[in-house]
Amino acid sequence: MRILLVHPNYHSGGAEIAGNWPPAWAAYLAGALRGAGYDDVHFIDAMTDHVDDAALEARIRELKPDVVGTTAITPSIYKAEETLKIAKKVSPAIITMLGGVHATFMFKQVLTEAPWIDVIVRGEGEEILLDLVRAIDDGRWPLARHDIEGLAFLDGHDIIATKAAPTVKDLEKIKPDWGILEWGKYIYIPLGKRVAIPNMARGCPFTCSFCSQWKFWRDYRIRDPKAVVDEIETLVNDHEVGFFILADEEPTINRKKFIAFCEELIARGLPEKIQWGINTRVTDILRDEEYLALYRRAGLVHVSLGTEAAAQLKLDLFNKETTVEQNKKAIRLLREADILVEAQFIVGLENETAETLEETYRMAMDWKPDLANWSMYTPWPFSNLFEELGDKVEIHDFDKYNFVTPIIKPAAMDRAELLDRVMNNYRRFYMRKALFSYPWQGTGYRRKYLLGCLKAFLKAGFQRTFYDLGRVNYWGPQSKKGVDFKFDRTRTNHRAETGDWKAAAETSRKALKREAVVHEAAKEVKGGVIKACGGGTQQLTDEDADEFNGAPTRGDAPGRSGAHI
């Protein structure tokens, strides 16, 4: 049986300005398939190769696959649906499969608007996909689909969702097939090196209102640090990867294992061959002040901090336990440890004003991060905050849910002015860095890295791909009146279908413990203590982190690199 995996051709001008990112999901699923004896697996990276619909159709005709599968986050859902429609056009006999976080929760809407999709894989894909492929290979499809956990499909006019499948219990059994990717395509522009996105853990013990990771992955599970380093060593030796970013939302949650990971990298001499970056919380940096030098020796050179917003009001809305002064101190500590730091600001909420946007710029200048990023607030349609926002979200064109398009219209300004003021922050921040900072950072690694970041930024700006500026017709302050975000306002939104996932989460032991932590945080907020990422004032202890990493039960509820098809 021939299986074709396709990464949809979606572009937004966001993170991709730093380079082409390898679609880790394809490697994880290909590894699971080949480990089970299915060797006739092919992959098309339509995004990196800019494969248009006509060329994709020709490739599918040439390959003659029995099964075509793709994945989608919210902004790429329409491209994913179109990819599978093309497969059905080539041959109605092709079985079309879709996975990913959006389809997991929005399966009713997806199947309604794209009835040519034969089946949706809900949740982690490795084990569910194997059950599905075996049923097809054995000739038990489509009758067996009702008996396979973790699926959604159309049965006549009815939309059927089978029982949620358990999460993957042993992450060490997952062996990604990194060889399915053409590594020469995946270059991190700032360093000119091949880049990978391995993962150390799945899930998160915190419940930030704007996030879906804890919902999708369900359980917080962390891998053996030595196994993660084994994988990185393979990427270095077999695929000449020179830079990686851990896919985890917060790899430092379990400090004990993160330290062991760093020590293992050092023991094998890998920091001489590969450097890396992470996303993490301000509070973790403050907690780990005495270990930052170790992290740098292990090759950690770039930390992106979720400072989120400058206004304390916004920090409260996002359930962040971070204060403005903590943000500033964390950035200083990282710079003193010779680790480049990127401050992430969330902008574009209903209460955004010209003054709050100016405040984020002043904060960036005061905190002195090496890099700054202003992301438009994007309310995932299956997040808690989306429901809380209610009618304030009037745009349901998911193609624009990409962190660069203003989804929510602030009460005090229109979307074009919001975009213009964000661009003004970028222009001022990076102009000052280009003139007075980056060229004078010595002659070593830091200077090379920062000038590489500036190169990537300028290249995307010149090509008008940054923030999708060319497509929306933004050319500077003088073009505000002509900006057109091209929203498809005919699209409406269905409620996310959590169903069995949510009910199971509420009865899960780990979810109950998580809720207790959040409950205490909520009580302390009323007393004036600021919170973060849904957590309490305390950090997770090593014992707490290991507790969250316990084996899930079959009844547990849902739950970034990895296994969503």
UniProtKB/TrEMBL annotation:
Location of the region described as Disordered in the Swiss-Prot/TrEMBL record: 536-565
Molecular function terms, GO-annotated: 4 iron, 4 sulfur cluster binding; catalytic activity; cobalamin binding; metal ion binding
GO cellular component, one term: cytosol
Domain Radical SAM core residue range list: 190-411
UniProt keyword Iron, yes or no: yes
Residues annotated as domain B12-binding: 9-143
Cofactor needs: [4Fe-4S] cluster
Name under which the protein is recorded: Radical SAM protein
Record InterPro entries: BchE-like (IPR051198), Cobalamin-bd (IPR006158), Elp3/MiaA/NifB-like_rSAM (IPR006638), Methyltransferase_Class_B (IPR034466), rSAM (IPR007197), rSAM_horseshoe (IPR023404), rSAM_sf (IPR058240)
Keywords linked to the UniProt accession: Iron, Iron-sulfur, Metal-binding, S-adenosyl-L-methionine
Keyword Iron-sulfur applies: yes
Organism: Novosphingobium fuchskuhlense
Gene3D superfamilies, per the entry: Cobalamin-binding domain (3.40.50.280), tm_1862 like domain (3.80.30.20)
Taxonomic placement: Bacteria, Pseudomonadati, Pseudomonadota, Alphaproteobacteria, Sphingomonadales
